[in-house]
Amino acid sequence: MIWLKATCKLDFYMESTTPLVLMLRPRTGAQQWVASESYTLDPFVPMAEYTDIYGNLCQRLAAPLGNFSIQTSATVMTEYVVDRAPGAEFVDILSLPEEILAYLLPSRYCESDRFGDLAREITAGALLGYDQVLCIDDWVRNNIRYTPGSSPCPISATEVNQRGEGVCRDLAHLGVALCRSISIPARLVVGYLLGLQPMDLHAWFEAYVGGRWYTFDPTQKEIHGGRITVAYGRDAADVSIFHQFGAGDILSGMEVQVDLLPGAPG
Amino acid sequence: MIWLKATCKLDFYMESTTPLVLMLRPRTGAQQWVASESYTLDPFVPMAEYTDIYGNLCQRLAAPLGNFSIQTSATVMTEYVVDRAPGAEFVDILSLPEEILAYLLPSRYCESDRFGDLAREITAGALLGYDQVLCIDDWVRNNIRYTPGSSPCPISATEVNQRGEGVCRDLAHLGVALCRSISIPARLVVGYLLGLQPMDLHAWFEAYVGGRWYTFDPTQKEIHGGRITVAYGRDAADVSIFHQFGAGDILSGMEVQVDLLPGAPG
Amino acid sequence: MIWLKATCKLDFYMESTTPLVLMLRPRTGAQQWVASESYTLDPFVPMAEYTDIYGNLCQRLAAPLGNFSIQTSATVMTEYVVDRAPGAEFVDILSLPEEILAYLLPSRYCESDRFGDLAREITAGALLGYDQVLCIDDWVRNNIRYTPGSSPCPISATEVNQRGEGVCRDLAHLGVALCRSISIPARLVVGYLLGLQPMDLHAWFEAYVGGRWYTFDPTQKEIHGGRITVAYGRDAADVSIFHQFGAGDILSGMEVQVDLLPGAPG
Amino acid sequence: MIWLKATCKLDFYMESTTPLVLMLRPRTGAQQWVASESYTLDPFVPMAEYTDIYGNLCQRLAAPLGNFSIQTSATVMTEYVVDRAPGAEFVDILSLPEEILAYLLPSRYCESDRFGDLAREITAGALLGYDQVLCIDDWVRNNIRYTPGSSPCPISATEVNQRGEGVCRDLAHLGVALCRSISIPARLVVGYLLGLQPMDLHAWFEAYVGGRWYTFDPTQKEIHGGRITVAYGRDAADVSIFHQFGAGDILSGMEVQVDLLPGAPG
Q1: Is the pTM of this model over 0.90?
Q2: Nearest to B44 among C38, C46, C264 (CB)
Q3: Is the pLDDT of residue C231 over 90?
């Protein structure tokens, strides 16, 4: 059990008033406890908060003309070691909890309806369940070059597979698409990872086997925890730290920091 | 106000026990009242019912080896004339009801993130809102040939646009993608349409303008009602009358019938 | 596994237009499958349907001046034998599913905050869990005289306990209050019971032990199934087959029928 | 628009491990924006967070043997002036949003089914809607003596009315029961009030008229804002800052502080 403090600062320059939907407030969940959390807008503008279909806390606001920045921070308890479960079993479709079923369907950037053959080939011979996901995770790591910064706009799993390289989100999308194509529920996670080089917001994926979600990260050879989930969903279409309505390149700067705290916060 | 009776019979042949998720029970909603409804399985197998993230009633079951059929019927009150609202205004992102926001996002078969330029061209000069959707609806009708039966697997809006032809679902997907790309919420509807030639299950789309959902159908020159909504969602990935888990062509027959009843059912 | 057909006819006479909320449409659930179902209003008036906080399907309408009737029927598969589980364990508060927690709280007609001493006395020596509920069920059956028709308005568990007699709903309320007072989740069920004498809508309760809901009915010495759940909730304040807004005695007649069908409906 | 910082410290002494459900994390809502927030346990114990049926964020944990304390703080933007709307209209039952309907039903401490006659007498001659609630608010203020500290356990509206005095929660319960008895949705609010004497957590009520919730507080002659909503629900059965499972007096101390900040937090 470790304590992390994560901060994220987004600087925008708006050429016109622009509606934004933001997803930057981590919530307490199965694997993390949010002890404190702050959210600062400069200049301050009114905003509304709502919970989306996946349970993420979202903010909706009209970003004003000119400079605008959002700074968030969170102090969170989590684990440094990621749970692993070789042998954890495939969950039969009829036994999946209802709220998991949506994570079996193809989505914008995870065209799982097109990956069945590849996934069966990759996982041939593996025990059904966790071990299949391990095969997929390894395959993505070995076949898609992880190139931070290479893909400003999200591309889909099919495109990632063709290009053979991508950012963390792209590798995760491909992992998700492959899992779903063999009826294993999978979802994209956006969050913070302690020690990530270069430091940035990160994306990885979770697969549902053996009755719970497990963490996989094709960008990391030796997976470790120290992760804070900010939001999760079917893919990056649903999970965007900010979604702007209207064209233009509005983000002028972004700083992310994740620190290990020496002990529990007072 | 008219009364319709719709029936749908699906015949399957299973080479092995196959999990199915079905969406075939219409529910009472803003524009229809379900007075009676039945659902018969032959042979009978146990099933579980749940409500998905869009509010559709879904059934989950293991279809047994061999012949298996599902027959559903519903008696529904609805309108013959579809509401139209030229001039109905675009709803600002900040004013949309929370539950509508998901219908702005790109989805598996509606890559709205790739259609902004085309949508702006198609709707150039139109009043923001309903009139833009009319332009989109007309453009799809005039540019994509409606060819019932041409596309057994769903293809995406990008593919539909390239092919220049498609089934009802394809035309609806393209309409949805175009609407969302200019920040108008849109969703796919699957249901029954009185008088459809050839009779089959049908798909169309709805767009949210002027504070409510309006019906559009690019397959019909003179749009009319007599529609029963069976399910709606972001696209056909979410709204499938049956979703099978496991490969193979299992549907061996399908019959759909929609009749106008002379009066209210006793 | 048996098939039942239940019908309920409510006749009203309204002295003025009266808003009604109705709860008369059984839904498929853990222990029943609704194969067909119908709902007829005479005269027909527009209505809206919604799902309440407990998952019940409710109808809202303005009942018109004069005679008004509602007739519903449902064909449902259920079990004739009620599951029993002596020894099923008390579920620790921290292990209860989230959606069950509300059923631990006191409610309008189940003042569980006032029954702790009595419940501990009644259940003294019993294994924690199912066996405690059996003690409560027996105690209510032996101490509160079941008198169909004796209590037109709902009275609370405290009042029932003082009077020493009540209708089915009253006995169920007392059972619920006693269970909750020792931290066992409990809820009121309204529905049909095959063979009930005199035939009427019925009420019983369920308690959550051993990881699921179990059925208890203090009005019946030898409990059997053949039950169709129409609605459930914390107590009769939430679960009323009709709730009128405005004073006056509007119900002029009610007929309930429950038949055993010889086989599965075609 | 003002900025408040509120802190609450609860000290417990447990004679045995005790399950607790807590409701102490204010959320951003229609009338407040939570800019930062913290939650500290001493000693730290694992906990799970969930959202209840009213949208409140709840924590569930096992409080350990011995001393245990919880300290929470929140920095919140709100208004100093409470919105008033004389003349705002009664909302017809058929026009109420679905999620509001539960606030019309009687509940544990608000037996609205017993207050119709009194409410009609109190509100005789008033315009339907906001003005009726004003009459109720005044009547409670003038007829029930506000006596902080007089009632450690919640008592119901009927009991409050008989006693003629009560704590803030009691007056609010009576206000709620009277509103609901004339079909005006009403709910209990628990939160902080700037300047409250003596400082403590506070309770008041909201009524739904003219299409939104309005604030009423029978303990205050000149109502003002500076309020932070921590939780709301049908009554104190649902809205308890802490709910213990198991008997015994566990709270050994409580400190509440609410400060006006000079400007927006950096």
Answers
A1: yes
A2: C264
A3: yes
